[in-house]
Specification:
By secondary structure, the protein is mainly α. It has two helices and no strands. Keywords: Membrane, Transmembrane, Transmembrane helix.
């Protein structure tokens, strides 16, 4: 989940603006939790390609 559309219940401002301490704390928490969300789409595609190649190699070696 991204925080760019979330609205803070404390100050009624977008969380991405970080106007109050609650917004800033939640923004930091969401940024730390999003490991894969921080990767760009090409990196995710490359990671998927490496995983598929590894599975295909293992399947070929056992056959």
């Amino acid at each position: 989940m991204t925080y760019d559309r979330l609205v803070c219940a404390n100050c009624a401002a977008p969380v991405s603006e970080g106007r109050c301490p609650v917004c800033r704390a939640n923004r930091e928490r969401l940024q730390q939790e999003s490991f894969l969300a921080g990767l760009n789409p090409m990196a995710l595609i490359a990671l998927l390609a490496v995983l598929v190649a590894a599975v295909a190699l293992l399947a070929h070696q056992t056959a």
